[in-house]
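Extended Data, panel c. Modelled sequence:
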Amino acid sequence: MEVIGKIILDLPEQSGVSKTGNQWRKKEYVLETQDTYPKKVHFDFFGDRAEQFKLHVGQLVRLSFDIESREYNGRWYTSIRGWRAEEVAEGATTAAAPVAAADPFAGAAPIAPAVVPAPPSVNSTDDLPF
């Protein structure tokens, strides 16, 4: 999945050691979309990607990400895990936006109105209800 927006928050890097003894690190950001009604999206880069993608506040980026959910103690937690970030030119936001709202019937032949037959005349000898 992809989203385009401006980085509005750069959170401190977190790191630690897993139960199996492996080192891990995570870098989190908050992005705000450029839509009519902007949405804030909290996401992170995990492992080597935390060092690979250095983003800064005010930068306009196209974020490629995966969404994953996991259960812990009966509650569900959802994460947006980034796997690529590309800087976007300021005027390119509308051109790069997905075409989800496109008219699927554009260019299709017009549909003729349906012809509905007139109801049959009432015949007193016919006892059928239809």
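The chain has one domain: 2-92. This feature is highlighted in the accompanying rendering.
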